[in-house]
Specification:
Elements: E1 11-13, H1 22-29, E2 36-38, E3 42-43, H2 44-52, H3 62-67, E4 76-81, H4 85-98, E5 102-107, H5 112-116, H6 127-140, E6 145-150, H7 159-172, E7 176-180, H8 191-194, H9 202-211, E8 217-220, H10 226-232, E9 238-241, H11 243-247, H12 255-260, H13 270-276, H14 278-286, H15 292-295, H16 308-319, H17 327-338
Parallel strand pairs: 1-2, 1-9, 2-4, 3-4, 4-5, 5-6, 6-7, 7-8, 8-9
Helix pairs in contact: 2-4, 4-6, 6-7, 13-17
């Protein structure tokens, strides 16, 4: 068992492909120091192949591109996808070696591509296989092993089936369940539709916590505000927010104060978030990285700011240049600060 109690994470930002990369995670750290952050899903087989590469652990090598992060991002969980216990055990050991705080198994993604690899939400149909995977991961590393999943799939969405799944996986060593409170239709709906069309069933997640009080249960799905999260924390152990965190980052600036009773940091502003990225951008550029992968995440930080459209246009033009440096962010932060943002 890891030294950090998984139940201590009362708020987290969900893993999202193309969104929760290392740069966005550093951005979120300007807003909340206490939230648990997740990587994008990394396929266990990809980690295995990267580990065999000659440049595996070198700066800029394949493993570094898949697993590298800045220390400021912690606490940080690595989310992995796969259904092979051996490959997932290898991934878990790598997560520990690279300094992650947790490893999370994706049993919730409904995309057709993921299904073809036989992982993601389709694994809910095989609780025993998920249990074997979790047991292998837990045996391979000291980190907490957690699982993100749906309340059901297709016609297999009874509460009894959900309980059977959770019980089997908990017995194998899973220490927290991040439950997306919607079922997934594996055929007929794409991933975007699966995030909105199946109805939210918070009552199912609440019942799971009530009937399995010894387990750490985190609710995901449809949480649009901090008030929504605080309300859910009366009934479950954790609240996980996805696209609402990406689309409205400053909306979550009171997470540390309201959820963790931690007022050690001043509340973030648009200028403090952008300015807080300057030193990180300098380091990133010194290693040969471009500025745009960092700057692209900033368009929503100026939500509600006067002149936001023009600010975004200028940032895009300047940060998009191949030789753009951290000075672009410093100037952008100053322009916001001068206007009281």
């Amino acid at each position: 068992m890891g030294q950090i109690d998984p139940a201590s994470y009362r708020f987290s930002v969900a893993p999202m492909m193309d969104y929760t990369d290392r740069h966005f995670r550093v951005l979120m750290r300007q807003i909340s120091r206490r939230s648990l952050l997740y990587t994008e899903m990394v396929v266990a087989q990809a980690l295995h192949h990267a580990r065999q590469a000659p440049d595996a652990s070198a700066p800029g090598g394949r493993l570094e591109r898949l697993l590298g992060f800045d220390p400021i991002e912690k606490p940080l969980a690595l989310q992995v996808g796969g259904d092979d216990p051996g490959l997932l055990a290898e991934a878990a050991a790598l997560a520990a070696d690279w300094g992650y705080d947790e490893i999370n198994l994706n049993v919730g993604c409904p995309s057709e591509k993921v299904q073809k690899g036989r992982f993601g939400a389709c694994l809910m149909a095989d609780p025993d296989q998920v249990a074997r995977c979790v047991a292998a991961m837990a045996a391979a590393c000291p980190l907490p092993v957690t699982v993100k999943h749906r309340i059901g799939i297709d016609e297999r969405d009874s509460y009894a089936e959900l309980l059977a799944f959770v019980d089997a996986v908990a017995a194998a060593g899973a220490q927290r369940f991040a439950v997306h409170a919607r079922k997934a239709w594996l055929e007929g709906l794409d991933p975007k539709q699966n995030r909105t069309i199946p109805p939210l069933r918070y009552d199912v997640v609440h019942a799971l916590k009530r009937d399995r009080p010894q387990l750490s249960i985190e609710l995901n799905g449809g949480l649009e505000s901090l008030d929504d999260c605080v309300q859910q924390l009366e009934l479950v152990d954790g609240a996980m927010v996805g696209r609402a965190a990406y689309a409205h980052p400053l909306q979550w600036r009171q997470v540390d104060q309201q959820i963790y009773a931690d007022d050690s940091q001043p509340l973030a502003t648009a200028s403090s978030v952008v300015g807080g990225l300057v030193a990180y951008a300098e380091q990133w550029r010194s290693r040969g990285g471009r500025l745009w992968p960092i700057a692209r995440h900033l368009v929503h930080v100026v939500e509600g700011v006067g002149g936001a459209k023009r600010w975004r246009q200028q940032l895009t033009e300047k940060a998009g240049a191949r030789d753009a440096d951290a000075g672009v962010l410093a100037a952008a932060a100053l322009s916001l600060a001068e206007r009281g943002y």
